[in-house]
Write a structure and sequence with these properties.
2 domains, about 450 residues, three-stranded antiparallel beta sheet, Uridine Diphospho-n-acetylenolpyruvylglucosamine Reductase, domain 2, 17 helices, alpha+beta, five-stranded mixed beta sheet, Cytochrome p450, globular
Length: about 450
């Protein structure tokens, strides 16, 4: 008796594709709405970058399998991602699995608990320096201030040698232009776009070339010095010493750490403050927790938060987690299939580009009730469910989970606690409702605030 195999499950096509362009106009005009809308079509949906097909996984369960039980079927790379690999490099966030298996253990000691505790002191000092420079009644660009704070943190934890301090500041300023160029190179196929003499390309080429020179000088200094400065760069240089091109290897890791440590944390903090402005009752609860943990209020200045205060700042951490759920910095993630993926929900061929959007996944009502509502209590012990935990992808999952997840969470908690225990922020009418800017990261719109003492 002959056994007949079931045919591969077909994958529906996303509507709205145009001849020659495919779905590029949809992604250029309103990518967040586009990817969220794909959930209504199926758990796996085919889209087109010009005439090049790719697959979007819209099911949280399938994305969890992609990260864990079936992670060997998916890797970094593919025809779309390979176009930007020369720009994003081969660091932890972008390297293929065989390189990741070697790099991750080499980098992990930089994020062990003893070092996180030491980094937390830098985070507290940096938050104190930035918020302590404000004056009552001053109008500030909140994102610029949060970026200034994260620049201080990453500059003092990544590159702490005095001789390299200017390099840290330059690299921090360059990351937004690098990420903007990377995003457009990913969604526009072929080499034609990258060759156009338009501002985004000119700026990208300038900052990338200069940043590589800056990093090379820092690497030369650290290799010649041979001293462990107790920073991330010392460990990165040592870990990359056996690579075929140590300079290139260090640059790739530096770009990875800067993207996560600068833009992601600054973006998350700004989005979270904007959400709190729209939810005054949640903000009042958060302030009450901060006053209980840190003191302050009418009787005096609150003390600065430190690593030891984290257990007392549980609601603060729930607020940060919920902010990350609603506005995950890495709003779109890519993979490539290493072989055929014969899912019942939709067959994906080998060597296909695969995408999923944490922004869209976090708005799935089957996982998060009232997904468009800012509700930090959904992460409290008496309400959080395993389905929610499994459907949360802001920091990745499986062996690709962000190596700096604890670093970033500690930094955001200390920064938010310092800011809100000292200051009240007043937003102009309607300013907290503007939509985020979409690049390779989900960046907040310009947010002007007036600051007044929290008394």
């Amino acid at each position: 008796m002959t056994t007949v195999s079931a045919p591969p499950s077909t994958v529906p096509n996303a509507p709205g594709g145009l001849p020659l362009l495919g779905h590029i106009p949809n992604m250029a005009q309103d990518p967040l709405t586009f990817f969220r809308g794909l959930q209504q079509i199926g758990p796996v949906v085919r889209i087109r970058f010009a005439n090049q097909p790719a697959y979007v996984v819209t099911s949280p369960e399938l994305v969890r399998r992609l990260h864990t039980t079936e992670q060997d079927l998916f890797d970094k790379g593919g025809p779309l991602f390979d176009r930007v690999r020369p720009y994003v490099g081969n660091g932890l966030a972008s390297c293929p699995a065989h390189d990741h298996a070697r790099q991750r253990p080499a980098m992990q000691p930089a994020f062990q608990r003893s070092r996180i505790e030491r980094y937390a002191e830098v985070m507290t000092d940096s938050a104190d320096e930035v918020t302590g420079s404000w004056r009552p009644g001053q109008v500030l660009d909140l994102y610029k201030e949060m970026h200034r704070l994260t620049t201080l943190v990453i500059g003092r934890t990544l590159i702490s040698a005095d001789q390299a301090d200017p390099a840290a500041r330059h690299i921090a300023q360059a990351v937004p232009d690098i990420m903007r160029g990377v995003y457009w190179r990913m969604i526009v196929p072929g080499r034609f776009f990258a060759a156009l003499p338009i501002p985004v390309n000119r700026r990208y080429e300038e900052v990338t070339a200069h940043t590589r020179k800056v990093v090379d000088k820092v690497v030369d200094h650290y290799r010649a010095d041979g001293t462990d400065h107790g920073d991330l760069m010392s460990m990165v240089v040592a870990a990359c010493e056996q690579e075929p091109d140590p300079h290139a290897a260090v640059y790739d890791q530096v770009v990875t750490f800067l993207t996560a440590g600068l833009e992601s944390v600054a973006s998350s903090l700004t989005h979270t403050v904007r959400l709190l402005h729209r939810h005054p009752q949640i903000l009042a609860r958060l302030r009450a927790e901060l006053q209980e943990a840190l003191g302050g209020g009418p009787d005096g200045e609150p003390r600065l938060p430190g690593y030891g205060d984290l257990p007392k700042l549980r609601f603060t951490q729930h607020v940060i987690t919920e902010g990350l759920r609603m506005y995950p910095p890495a709003w779109l993630v890519s993979r490539v299939t290493t072989e055929d993926v014969p899912w019942d929900e939709g067959h994906i061929p080998a060597d296909a580009g695969v995408f999923f959007s944490p922004y869209a996944l976090h708005r799935d009502p089957s996982v998060f009730s009232d997904p468009d509502t800012f509700d930090p209590d959904r992460w409290s012990p008496d309400r959080v469910t395993n389905v929610q935990r499994q459907g949360y992808f802001s920091l990745g999952a499986g062996r690709r989970k962000c190596i700096g997840d604890v670093f970033g969470t500690v930094e955001a908690t200390i920064a938010l606690a310092t800011l809100l225990s000292r200051w009240r922020l007043f937003h102009p009418p309607g300013s907290a409702d503007a939509r985020p800017t979409v690049t390779a990261l989900l960046l907040p719109p310009r947010t002007l605030v007036r600051v007044e003492r929290n008394r």
